[in-house]
Amino acid sequence: MLGIDFSHHFIEVANAMKLKGTAEYEALLQGDIKESRVAKVAADIDRSKVTFAQGDACNLDVAELGAFDLVFASNLLCRLPEPKQFLATLPSLVRSDGVLALISPYSWLEEYTPKEHWIGGTVNPVDGTPIDSFAEIERLLAPHFTLVARTQYPFLIREHDRKFQYGVSDGTFWRRNA
Predict the structure, then answer these.
(1) CA 76 to CA 3: how far, in whole Å?
(2) How far out from the chain centre does Cα 169 lie?
(3) Which CATH architecture best describes the domain 57-178?
(4) Tell me: the pLDDT tens digits for 32-87?
(5) Between vectors from CA 91 to CA 71 and to CA 9, what angle results, nearest 5°?
(6) Can you tell me the distance from the alpha carbon of 64 to that of 90, in angstroms, rounded to the nearest whole number?
(7) Domain map of the chain by residue range?
(8) Which residues contact 168 (CB under 8 A, 6 or more apart)?
(9) What is the pTM for the complete model shown?
(10) Are 51 and 43 in contact (CB under 8 A)?
(11) pLDDT computed for residue 52 by the predictor
């Protein structure tokens, strides 16, 4: 199993958890008040079976990485500067009959993705109809993948003890065509 993230810090923490089984962090309670906490890997998890690497999802070296039985991309797509570039690499990253799990809230923001690179979330300038992100992704993946399941995944992002962000990601699961 290989985990890739753009953030060098996230990869450092993941590798530390792989090595030690724990990671210490501070949780914001309110204002300047913080509390020390420890994240722990469950005892029944074999940490030796995972590798973590820093990488850019829009510039993956497919020849070096090879193909996988499963590619899991969660809450990633709408944070990429060029999400179509990432989608274009997926036929090479997912083996024939393999699975792509693509999970996204479609929270398109120009601070992450220039508007001209959004996949949906816009209005057709000709007729004013909405361009839906899922429909566009389905169109882009259709030559190489078949949708096998779709479900909604609620999530909660904790800011501090009394403030949370609630979201719902669209979970889509695709089988790579042979």
Answers:
(1) 13
(2) 10
(3) 3-Layer(aba) Sandwich (3.40)
(4) 999 999 999 999 999 999 999 999 999 999 999 999 999 999 999 999 999 999 99
(5) 40
(6) 14
(7) 1-55, 57-178
(8) 105, 152, 153, 154, 155
(9) 0.91
(10) no
(11) 97
